[in-house]
Amino acid sequence: MKKKVLLILSLVTLVFVSCDTSDDNGDYADYLVARPLVISKAEFASSVDIIPPRPINESGKVYTYEDYIFVNDKYEGVHVIDNSNPEQPKKISFIKIPGNVDISVKDNFLYADSLMDLIVLDISNINAIEQINRLENVLYNNIFWPFEADIIENVNFDYETEILIGWDTVTERRLIEEVEQNKGRDVLFNDIALAEAANDSRTGQGGSLARFKIVDDYLYAVDSHNINIFDISDLENPQDLEDVYAGFDIETIFNRGNHLFLGSMRGMYIYDISSPSKPTFVSEFEHGTACDPVVVDGDYAYVTLRGGNECGALESGLFIVDISDIENPKLAIDYPMDEPYGLGIKGEKLFVCDGKSGLKVYDKTDIEDLKSLNHFKDIVTFDVIPLETHLIMVGDGVLYQYEYLDDKIKLISQIGLN
């Protein structure tokens, strides 16, 4: 099933972020500059490769499977780490997958997105990973316009022979006068067509930011508007089924029993998968406009909303939603946060990755009165996975692991991915 959407972007207004006048009389300012990462279509078609460990460029999502941890390097691929000894994790290799953001694993078969393609890898021998299948044009592109950037440069590539696989963003000092002169000029992709992107089996575990989720014999992959459904009963040969239109600005997926919980910029959508090939809408919880991962435990869904950025909202927070009546979810209570990303739950412990404000740990026994157990302040946090034995978290180029204690947690190891 070929899926394409025409993306024409124009009129990007350039606004500077900060200005340091101490050494340049206010003539210069720091700007976030984005440049497209482009490869040829021929290179993209044969681009998956297994190479020795390399430094991470931009930490993405984290995923665990058996004794291994997989850390996404945003739009570039996946770092493979041996975690058989959590106190001394070891880097094994890097799976080069241009345009990759998400993975999911079942019975030693790893499924990964590569822009609009779905890649299938055999990881039964972790030291000799093999690509065994590639389904072309079955996903929508996950490469989005870098709205957080102040300046976007060099977008006029040859779309007939080249493919956009991501964006390189760096902070650069620029002359304010020159930037102001360019403000309001159109930045246009001229006619660029981008393809948008509990049984005996062994599946891995992703964090709350995941867009991929395996439930029994089905892989669900959400894009901004749809649930893409794959029958993986034949693990080597996934079957692309009919998509289900699910809403707007969908960002994450979480599963509990026969329900999928989709986090979006507009709210949380709940879908019934009693008929797994045909998810059906159950209900929606609206919260305005904000970035939105979700996890579910018991009668409550825990949702982090991140504002003050491209997501549109002004304030950030943790929303706890009562889903005891699955067809009528209601806000129970909310708590302020700074810039939350992923979150996770283990027993009565709630873990929130609050961006530059660090990792926050709460006792959620009484949702009306969350009690702080730990706050690791001097780290940047992004995604977290609470395992049975310990906690895994990825931050700004660093993988952290924590041991559970009765009333708190403590660090047992960290490994730099740079």
Automatic annotation (TrEMBL):
Tell me the InterPro entries matching this sequence: LVIVD
The UniProt keyword set, sorted, is:
Signal
Domain of life of the source = Bacteria
Please give the SUPFAM superfamilies that the UniProt record associates with this protein.
Answer: Putative isomerase YbhE
Q: Where is the signal peptide?
A: 1-21
Protein name (record): Uncharacterized conserved protein
- This chain's source organism reads Flagellimonas pacifica
